[in-house]
Specification:
Chain lengths: ~250, ~550
């Protein structure tokens, strides 16, 4: 059986009722919301993507009887519960600033400058409660308000940009766009530079490896195999500073 | 939730052998890696070697080539529409460069084409960024560590992993462009994992001789994809995006040059014409074809559409006889089935163990070898761990990483998987994961050269849809690299072609008519149509009651 062919599940599995946008369907209890929709007869175009919990296409809100609170999850990751009332939110319109990453000034004012509405945050914490990735959204927004780019970048790192925070924010913030702004500014301007990468780019451009590579490319397979087998392997537990015995072809 | 009692009991075997295995690891006493001869022997247990899994193509430019039945089905299929019904005089979109596919390769292509001065239109099947790139977890290879690594050693690893049959020019381009890709990503603001002094953290992957896998925690692909997507969105005057608009055919002009494509609006079901001076196919892979019934790690849209439309236009396929099964797909719990467990878990030292808690394979063999060894252990040897739903798997001993690299490492290095399994009641820093090989990557694909060119002027290829760079088996961390390197090259070449070499002509779909006729002559039944666009996950019981519904291929219309 392939992973998503929900319909091929064993029929003896117990069925539970779920309510898709208010309408009742009986679904095998082990399915995710996404597979439950397919089992019910939907062919999904919107609200489906990677089916692996990372693309953010299938942000979903639901409630269960006897509980006043709105729950959230990714449809591809959340297993159905008896009597749950679900609505997948495949898209939510949002304010996004167009900017050129090369020209921005990476200072603490950047968030208020690009997204002045950030000051409307009233600290209600609904964004955090709306995050299917368990990100402390309000904390990174607070960091952004204070101009702490690094903290906002790190705290928002696991964001899948599903937009559920934005859909529920009474201050009408686009949290996830503020998050990626923080990460890109941090990544480009604030994180220490990897100078070794530029050094290697320079060496490649100077043609330092050209002869060795061209020689390998012209080597018949049977002669290539022993070269491959004898190449020195960096030990698994070595430190980054490890160096091979021979400096040849480095 | 969590492991049922019978599996908990079997986990005790893993825990019993763990102290001794850790001691061996710390003393650098590894399970013996296979020799090349032993690898060859082991490969007979790989699904690629099952002759009943494949057949010869009977039509098109690669006629006679033996590949998986599922590939033959999408290559030997009629157009989704009647070409006579298409009016090519009514053009709905005009652009310099059309990029088909909005994943990593497509977006990189768009950025580079734009930088050459071209207007770009990205047409993508689902949302911009809905792609396998988003799902790549482990990392991106590049020889950036001066003094211990170089493109020379990267090249050797690429060839060794690919059974030495890779296209040398493509492999050369991959490894020599790699360092610049990392620099580019850093400049775009990608948050790659670093030491405090700025040096990038790197680790091993299966088949690497140097630690050259760069990563962004365990969501490397997502970090790259969302960053380059953001960059494309920041150039709205010259890069437009059409979502939910898969291409269903290429348009050639009277000179036989590619000059655009026919798109299908997935929501309104209209067919729309794009006229473009150059076209890039960056449609990605095909895991959702579920070759040989395997579960898969791929994105919902990975149905090989680009293979179909280019093959029909005359582009041959190569290396498509080899498919990558990722050794470690989740096989428990049922809801997570097929889900990728990054190779980084093995790179960090986690052992692969059978039902007795014993090692049967070195954990860092190349992917095809590792997968074959696991399949063999579960089938021929019979030492697999049975799951509650009647499947088999082997243990991946993630708690070892906590002991080897310190408490909290699993949570810090694999936050995505940690959260996910925790939702299912399994704490992977304390309990091992149950895994089995899962369909992961299309090693082969369309024939193209090191400039992204195909045999059709005006048609360029980048990323997983192309074949040759990885030979018969791709190493971990070389797919993100592939989409970045060859996506950028395809975009650059396409823009340069559009702005200097392009020669306009009357738009035609004669190649589609011709191919439809060839299929008819070969006796292919008219019900077969492609591109597939979306996989068929319909419920047969529901379908039986849909008395007035038309399914056009797998699509309900």
């Amino acid at each position: 059986m392939s992973d998503t062919q929900a319909s091929k599940l064993k029929v003896e599995e117990p069925l539970v009722p779920i309510f898709v946008m208010g309408k009742r369907y009986e679904i095998p209890a082990s399915l995710t919301i996404q597979k439950a929709l397919e089992y019910a007869g939907y062919q999904l175009v919107r609200g489906v993507g990677c089916r692996g919990g990372i693309c953010g296409a299938c942000g979903t809100v639901y409630r269960v009887p006897g509980d006043h609170s709105i729950k959230v999850g990714l449809a591809c990751q959340t297993v159905v519960e008896r009597d749950m009332r679900i609505a997948v939110i495949p898209f939510f319109p949002v304010n996004r600033k167009v900017y050129n990453i090369r020209d921005v000034h990476p200072g603490p004012e950047i968030f208020a400058q690009f997204y002045p509405e950030i000051m409307r945050c009233m600290g209600c914490n609904t964004c955090t409660k709306s995050c299917p990735m368990d990100i402390n959204t309000m904390e990174y927004i607070s960091a952004a308000i204070r101009g702490d780019i690094e903290k906002a970048a790190n705290l928002s790192f696991d964001c899948v940009m599903c937009g559920l925070c934005t859909a529920r924010c009474p201050g009408e913030l686009a949290q996830y766009h503020i998050g990626i702004l923080a990460r890109r500014v941090y990544g480009r301007y604030i994180a220490p530079k990897a100078t070794h990468v530029r050094e290697m780019v320079g060496r490649v451009m100077q043609g330092r490896y050209e002869d060795g590579l061209r020689r390998l490319m012209a080597t018949p397979i049977e002669e290539l195999k022993p070269i491959y087998t004898k190449r020195e392997i960096e030990p698994e537990l070595s430190k980054d500073e490890w160096a091979p015995k021979s400096a040849e072809n480095l | 939730m969590g492991y049922p009692p019978e599996l908990k009991k079997l986990i005790q075997n893993v825990e019993r052998t763990r102290p001794e295995r850790i001691a061996a690891k710390k003393a650098a006493r590894e399970f013996r890696a296979m020799t090349l001869d032993e690898r060859n022997e082991m490969l007979h247990h790989h699904p690629d070697y099952r002759e009943e899994g494949r057949r010869e193509l009977i039509a098109g430019p690669s006629k006679g080539y033996r590949i998986a039945h599922e590939y033959c089905e999408i290559l030997e299929a009629y157009s989704r529409y009647n070409p006579e019904d298409i009016d090519l005089n009514t053009v709905h979109y005009t652009t310099d460069v059309l990029v088909i596919g909005g994943g990593g390769a497509g977006t990189a292509a768009a950025l580079l084409a734009e930088e050459q001065g071209a207007k770009v239109l990205i047409a993508t099947k689902l949302r911009h960024g809905d792609a396998n790139t988003m799902m790549a977890e482990g990392g991106i290879q590049a020889a950036t560590k001066v003094g211990k690594d170089s493109p020379y050693f990267h090249y050797l690893d690429v060839l060794g992993g690919g059974h030495f049959v890779n296209d040398p020019e493509l492999a050369y381009t991959l490894v020599t462009e790699a360092p610049d890709i990392i620099a580019w990503l850093e400049d775009l603001g990608c948050m790659l994992s670093k030491y405090p002094d700025g040096r990038l953290k790197t680790m091993h992957g299966g088949g690497t001789c140097r630690k050259r896998m760069h990563y962004a925690a365990d969501i490397t692909g997502a970090e790259i994809m969302r960053t380059i997507r953001e960059e494309a969105r920041n150039r709205p005057d010259s890069i437009s995006v059409l979502e939910f608009s898969p291409a269903v055919d290429l348009i050639l002009n009277e000179h036989g040059h590619c000059e655009g494509a026919v798109l299908f609006n997935l929501e309104t079901h209209e067919y729309l014409i794009v006229r473009a001076k150059a076209t890039v196919i960056a449609t990605g892979g095909s895991g959702r074809l579920h070759i040989q019934g395997f579960m898969c790690t791929n994105h919902y849209g990975a149905t090989g559409d680009g293979l179909t439309i280019a093959y029909r236009a005359g582009i041959p396929v190569r290396f498509l006889h080899s498919i990558q099964y990722h050794p470690t797909g989740a096989v428990f719990p049922e809801q997570a089935e097929g889900l990728l467990i990054t190779e980084k878990v093995r790179g960090a030292g986690a052992h692969v163990l059978n039902i007795d808690g014993l090692q049967f394979v070195y954990e860092r063999e190349p992917r095809d070898i590792e997968a074959a060894a696991i399949i063999r252990e579960c089938t021929i040897v019979g030492k697999g761990v049975p799951t509650p739903t009647g499947k088999f798997g082997v243990w991946l001993d993630s708690p070892m990483i906590e002991i080897l690299s310190g408490a909290g490492t699993v949570r810090r290095e694999f936050p995505g998987k940690y959260i996910l399994f925790k939702r299912y009641g399994i704490e992977i820093d304390k309990e091992p994961m149950l895994i089995y090989p899962t369909l992961h990557y299309q090693n082969g694909g369309l024939a193209y050269d090191n400039k992204g060119r195909t045999s059709i002027p005006g048609l360029f290829v980048g990323g997983e849809v192309g074949g040759g760079v990885h030979g018969e088996n791709r190493l971990m961390g070389n797919s993100l690299l592939d989409v970045m390197v060859f996506g950028r090259i395809a975009g650059k070449s396409a823009a340069s072609y559009a702005l200097t070499e392009y020669k306009t002509g009357r738009l035609q779909l004669d190649h589609v008519r011709r191919y439809n006729r060839e299929l008819e002559a070969a006796g292919i039944p008219p019900s077969k149509m492609a591109p597939m666009i979306l996989p068929d996950y319909s419920n047969p019981a529901v379908r039986k009651r849909q008395l007035t519904t038309d399914y056009h291929g797998t699509l309900r219309e």
